[in-house]
Amino acid sequence: MAKPGQGAKYRGSVHDFPDFNPSQDAEALYTAMKGFGSDKEAILELITSRSNRQRQEIIQSYKSLYGKDLMADLKSEISGDLARLILGLMMPPAHYDAKQLKKAMEGAGTDEKALIEILATRTNAEIRAINEAYKEDYHKSLEDALSSDTSGHFRRILISLATGNRDEGGEDRDQARDDAKVAAEILEIADTSSGDKTSLETRFMTILCTRSYQHLRRVFQEFVKMTNYDVEHTIKKEMSGDVRDAFVAIVQSVKNKPLFFADKLYKSMKGAGTDEKTLTRIIVSRSEIDLLNIRREFIEKYDKSLHQAIEGDTSGDFMKALLAVCGGED
């Protein structure tokens, strides 16, 4: 399969519903929630088969038909993992991401993995929309939130990513060689050293956080030529903690974004428990972007389909809704 960025198309698994009628859908949901006990299957079937844009129209129609807030009504009818999934699907993508970032910073501990997963993989346009949504929903800038919740070099990486200022141009060969040299020096496999560690670290951060994907692919190739090492492997070996995790995520996202998410999905279902939050976050946020590509990478790497993995690891309506969003067995 051609890797995205080399002519391959990103494709989601959820699309516009063909004969869409928002007031009809609003009515169907109202009926499903009326009286004692709701018809959960009807609710999840309808919502998972509409696109996000269409779901926003259903929310409007529901309000004008019944003078009620659909989100609030859904909240009172469903709970737990299913609610997290369905309510997530109902939110506009930027507001959903903003909420996930907010949640990752709430309470005692910070969920660094969630912060990295979102900020390291979103496009400039997506990041800018997230910034606006964050401010609108929480009356505080995303940068301020990250600032007060993280620290040190890790904080600087996240804030840099959160500006959504990555270059979108092609590659510059000479620059790529210089960039690869900085990477080799910071990762301590070059013989020469120009300047102190801190300024090198900053330069390395600037390279990973602001160069275009196309340019970075060239940098990684130059790095291999120069050192005989793979940049991702070297970062894992030479660095530690959140900084390492953030850099690895950026590198993986540049190399193959759908594979990055396939790995995260696999990890969320591997072993004894299920990490429902991560599973839900990725399925919701990638459903209209590249979930088909993610499915393909998943089966290629793990010899079982995402469909099978979800079936084996979740149950009930939550499982049904996840499978409906995933669409089809590979």
From TrEMBL:
Keyword Heme: no
The keyword Repeat appears for this protein: yes
Domain of life, per lineage: Eukaryota
UniProt entry keywords in alphabetical sequence: Annexin, Calcium, Calcium/phospholipid-binding, Cytoplasm, Repeat
One Gene Ontology CC term in the entry: nucleus
GO molecular function terms attached to this record: calcium ion binding; calcium-dependent phospholipid binding; phosphatidylserine binding
One Pfam family here: Annexin
Any single GO BP term: apoptotic signaling pathway
Localization (cell): Cytoplasm; Melanosome
Family that this chain belongs to: Belongs to the annexin family.
Record remark on domains: A pair of annexin repeats may form one binding site for calcium and phospholipid.
Described purpose of this protein according to its UniProt entry: May associate with CD21. May regulate the release of Ca(2+) from intracellular stores.
Official protein name in the record: Annexin
Species in which this protein is naturally found: Equus asinus (Donkey)
The gene coding this protein: ANXA6
